[in-house]
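seq as requested:
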Amino acid sequence: MTEITQLLKNNREWAESITKENPDFFHKLSQQQTPEYLWIGCSDSRVPANDIVGLLPGELFVHRNVANVVIHTDLNCQAVLQYAVDVLKVKHIIVTGHYGCGGVKAALGDEQLGLIDNWLRAIRDIYYRNESRFRVISDEEKRTDLMCELNVIEQVANICHTNIVQNAWRRGQELSVHGWIYAVKDGIIKDLGVKVNKLEQVAEAYRMGVSDATKSDY
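struct tokens:
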């Protein structure tokens, strides 16, 4: 049996086990999705979003990319964000990084890797803005851990700077943005204590005015 064939076999066994436990599960799932959470995480294969928070298919809307970065020019991420907020009406957006992230490690180094160097530039910018904090840390693992945490905090801010999220708050929509980090070595998530749930928590410089297209909603 080839590796690919094994995956198909695994799928059938998984579907059968779910159906045996809950015969109506897939029928109900096919009717609609009503997740309360948007998870923005890293593409790392060791960080399976649904599994580590104990949620079933349909309960977690997920976007993943290298090093869980939210960039305003990334239309893929922005489209996911808008769909989750405006259509699915999620109540929580959770940015979840992880310790030992390969993307973050690469951003801390000076090796040229190719196309991904452009993507990691956003993380390097975070490092240079906080360079003084790293000068006093000689342990490489601790430096990477700090950078992973700072990266999550930055991406929470980037989400809150979007007109998508700010307009939701203006509409009175219940929406919170959180920053978490996951430890692969023990499977535990750490809440970084970053939570934003209203426009007043966003720095004034990043608060957007109401557009003509949305004024009628207020």
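The first strand starts at residue 37 and ends at 42.
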